[in-house]
Amino acid sequence: MSEFKRIPPEQAHALREQGAVVVDIRDPATYAALHISGSTHLDNHSISDFIRAADLDAPIVVVCYHGNSSQSAAAYLISQGFSDVYSLDGGFELWRTTFPSETAQGTSE
User: Fold this and answer.
1) pTM, whole model, 2 decimals?
2) Active site includes 64?
3) Nearest by Cα to 39 from 13, 2, 77
4) Residue of 64, 73, 77, 85 marked catalytic
5) Residue ranges per domain, the chain?
6) What is the third-level CATH fold of 5-104?
7) Taking the chain, what is the end-to-end CA distance rounded to the nearest angstrom?
8) Sheet of 40-41, strands arranged across
9) For 6-48, how does the pLDDT look when each residue is reduced to its tens digit (9 = 90+)?
10) Which residues contact 62 (CB under 8 A, 6 or more apart)?
């Protein structure tokens, strides 16, 4: 894959169930208030460490508020060598309404 794909929550959920890494790029306070269960928070300070430690071939789903910023972040991850990257259409807001029981509070997991 040379570019990311935009996917709906249902497809992201299926990928997550199969072991995809879910990364949330919203601000830390919003992430701590509520996020997708099992997701990892990424920001400008943690992205380098994440990239160094990650399996570049593992599927990654990028989540933001509404599905816009995650597209830029997904494109960036592709440019850094990741091969299987997805942007969650509708972002966390659509996930939250689609899978309300699959959310968690607290800092990065």
Assistant:
1) 0.95
2) yes
3) 13
4) 64
5) 5-104
6) Oxidized Rhodanese; domain 1 (3.40.250)
7) 28
8) 5-7, 85-88, 60-63, 21-24, 40-41
9) 999 999 999 999 999 999 999 999 999 999 999 999 999 999 9
10) 4, 23, 25, 70, 73, 74, 77, 85, 86, 87, 88
